[in-house]
Amino acid sequence: MAQIRLQGEEAALEDPTLVEGFPGIGLVGKIATDHLIEQFEMDYYASVHCDGLPRVGVYRKGDSTIRPPVRIYVDEDRELLALQSDAPIAAPAVGNVAKCLTSWLVDTDVTPIFLSGFPAEKDGVPNLYGIATGDGAELLETYDIDSPSEDGVVSGPTGALINRSAQLDRDSIGLVVESSPQFPDPEAARVLIQKGIAPVTDLEVDVTDLVDRAEEIREQREKLAERMQQLGEEESTQAQPLRMYQ
pLDDT > 90: what percent of the chain? Predict the structure, then answer.
């Protein structure tokens, strides 16, 4: 049965924001979300059991506890939720997962921030732009986040979540950053946090560790990045020019 199962008491949240971190191009969303969870020492809040998610158990170095591959973490003081995923989502399950998660977001009145990479040969600091559903565009204008410079489409789990939000006319924003199409990209994840997530959530986030440990992070995420390259666009979250999708 599809459900989001709380791991303890329900958090006292008034106007929460959720940062989504499904793996995709450059693993930018995952790296950024993992960093927030670690930086703020967020608490494991809920396990995600949507139909179609991989039936695997995840464990960590130095910790024998098994957890599901998709989880939600919380920081009550910061009104912040974060979705962490350690496995790609198979194409046939993308729609079910988006419907399941969006139902929970609606029920808990959470505003989501969706994250995606845009494959590009970068020259200097990666460019960031924003997309939105509902009244989310007002947030992008408030924080001077640029609109896209060309037509495009977001695919994979993130694209399905955005599509579902638009269908229900729910407020959401998407942050798209130029990123490496081949390798984990901590620099692009840093831009996501500094120029997108931090201002929108009104949080101060130290990203020094992302810069200093860039090579280590790349090595740790290399296997997952290779796996994402082997999958089709429905499994891998990414933004791309519309002309390439048609």
Answer: 64
